[in-house]
Each structure stands twice: as C-alpha cells, then as structure tokens.
C-alpha cells in the first residue's frame, strides 16, 4: 500500500468516520435504552447511521488499498440515507419528535453528515483515477 493513499484526505475521512460511528452509535444506544417510547423511529435511524458510518470507515480503508467497489456503494447509500431522512424530517416533523443523526440533513452535527459522503465520493473519484 502506498503511503500517498494513507495521508491527507484519507486520514481525515477515516478519523471522521470513526468519530461519527462512535457518536451516532453511543447516542442511539443511550436513547434506545432510556427514551425508547419518545421517538423510536429517530433512534433506530441514528443506529442505522452508526452502522453506515462503521461500514463507510471499512470501505474507505479498503478503497485506499485499491478496492473501491464497496466504498462507492456505501457512500451512495449513506448520501441517500441523509437525503431521505433529512427530507422526511422536514416534510413530516411529527415522525421525528426527537432528532436522528440525519434529521434536517445533520443540522445537529453542523451538517457534517450531509457533507461527509460527498467528500468521500470526491476522494473516491480521485482514488479511482490514481
């Protein structure tokens, strides 16, 4: 594996995906175990986001070694999830009495959930060209 693939944007993406895996996972597990009745859909969606981030971390790591197929799929799935949940949370706010990680396109996390898959796709595009 070339050291060029393990520096700069690659390291930033891996760090952000690891952080969001932990943040979304911890948030959802606490909410599912202590506040389940308040907003189960939002809390399950946050858990789904955490799983997506974990798979995204793995996919980006694999892509840095030249195996880009899974990363392309996961990044598009993640972007679709953010877009779908973000839109639904705006159109049907009653479905989200409490926010999920992807509600309002990730406003609670500074819109990083909306930007992260786009950044990953741009990095992946560059990887595929290299």
Overview of this protein structure:
The structure is a single chain. By secondary structure, the chain is an all-alpha fold. Helices cover 70% and strands 0% of the residues. The chain is built from four helices and no strands. It has helices at residues 9-34, 40-63, 69-91, 112-129. α1 runs antiparallel to α4. The longest helix has 26 residues, at 9-34. It is elongated, with a radius of gyration of 15 Å. The chain starts with 8 loop residues before the first helix and ends with a helix. The mean pLDDT is 93.
Features:
single chain, 130 residues, mainly alpha, elongated
Q: What does the main sheet amount to?
A: none
Number of strands: 0
What is the percent of helical residues? over 70%
Oligomer: single chain
Share of β-strand residues: under 5%
**Count of DSSP-assigned helices:** 4
Give a summary of the structure in a few sentences:
By secondary structure, the chain is an all-alpha fold.
